[in-house]
Description:
Elements: H1 4-39, H2 43-71, H3 73-91, H4 97-125, H5 131-157, H6 162-175, H7 178-188, H8 195-200, H9 204-215, H10 217-233, H11 246-259, H12 265-278, H13 283-307, H14 313-336, H15 344-357, H16 363-370, H17 377-405, H18 408-429, H19 438-444
Amino acid sequence: MANSLFVLRVCLVAALGGLLFGYDTAVIAGAIGFLQARFDLSPTMVGWVASSAIWGCVAGVAFAGYLSDQFGRKKALLLTAFLFTISGIATALPNSLSLFILARFVGGLAIGAASMLSPLYIAEIAPPHIRGRLVTLYQLAIVIGINLIYYVNMQIAAMGDQAWNTQTGWRIMLGSETIPAILFGILLFFVPESPRWLIKQGKIGQALDILKAVNGTQQAESIREQIRESLEKKTGTFSDLFAPGLRKALSIGVVLALFSQITGINAIIYFAPEIFKRIGFSADSAFMQTFLIGIINTIFTIVALWLVDWQGRRKLLLWGVAGMTICLGVVGYCFYFSLLSGPWLLIAILAYIACFASSLGPIPWIIISEIFPTQTRGVAMSVATGMVWVGVLLITQFTPILLDSVGGAYLFWIFMGNSIVIFLFTLKNIPETKNLTLEEIEQQWK
C-alpha cells in the first residue's frame, strides 16, 4: 500500500521552497517605504530596488534546470536553501544601496531556482490522483510565506517609530528570512531523490523503492515501465521542445507563466501598503489591509487545494480568470471615479485576490510541472518558469511608474485586458490533465 503520510511529508518539505519564495518576494512590501526614506529613492529607483531580486530570479531559473538534470532535484534544492540563508544575512547588513541590491540578487537566485524546482520535484513524486492537490501545496506555501512576512513586517514596524524603521526596522524584516531558510535546508536531508530522475540516471532499484512507497507495489511497477519507455523515446535536448506536439506544450507553459504575473497580482502583493496609503489609509491601517489580503489569499488557495483534482484544472482556471476580469474592471472604475473611501475598492481587491488564489495562482504551477516529458522536464520548466519572472520583473519595475503617470484606473484596466487574453487562450488551448500520469499526459501531445 502507498504510504500517504510519507508522500505528504516529502511534499510538505519541498513546498517549503514555496514558503521562502513568498516570504522573500513579499518582504519588500513592508520594507520598501523605509528603504525609500533611508536611501532617498525616486519612483524609478523604488522600482529598481523592488525588482533587483527578480533579476536574480531570472538567472536562478536558468541554472536550476541544468543543475537539477545533472545533479538531481534534491541537491539543487539544497543549494537554494543555502542561497536563501546567505541572502537573508546579507540584506540585513549593508549601508550602501549597491550592496543591498547585490544581496537581493543572491536571494533572487534562490527564489528563481525554488520556483522551478519545488513544483517539479512534487509533480515527479506525487501519485496521479492527488498530484494537483500536492502541487497546490507549493502555492499554498507561497501565500503562507507572503502572509507570514506581512505579519512579521507589521510587528517589526510597530517596534519603533518612522526613524527607527528607516534605520533598523527594514534590516530585521529582511534578515528574518534566515530562520525558515535554515529549517528548509535541514529538512531536505530527510527526503528522497525524485524517482523519475533516478530512473533517468539508471538507478532503477532506488527509484522503484520510492515509487512503491508513493504508489503502492502494484502501481509502482506499471509507472516505472511508463517512465522507462518515455525516457527511451526522447533525447532530452532543448530542440525536443520545438518538435510537433511539444511545441504546443511549451507555448502553453510560457503563456500561462507570463499571464499569471501580468494580470496584476504582484502589483497588489508588492505595493499594497503604498497603494492603500495613496488612497487615504494611514500607515498602520495600510499594513492591516495588506495582512487581510494575505488571509484571503491563503483561504482561497485552500479552496483550490480542495477543487483542483475534483473539478479539474481547466474549469477552475476559466471560472477564476473570469472573476478576476470583473474585479479588475471594478478596481479601475473606483480609481477613475475617485470612489476610494467607500468599501467597493477594498471589496473588489479582496475578491480579485480570492479569484486569483483559487485559479491563476496555483494552476499554472500544476500544469507547467505536468505537461513536459521527463527527459526534458528540467530545461522546459526553466523556460516556462523564466517567463514567470519576466512578468514579475515587468510588474515590479513599471507599477510605481505607471501609478504616477497614468494612474490607478488605467493600470488596473491594463491588467483586466491581460485577464481577457488568458481567458480566451485557456478556452482554446489548455487540455484537462487531472488523474493522468505524467507519461499519459506526454502521450496526449502526440
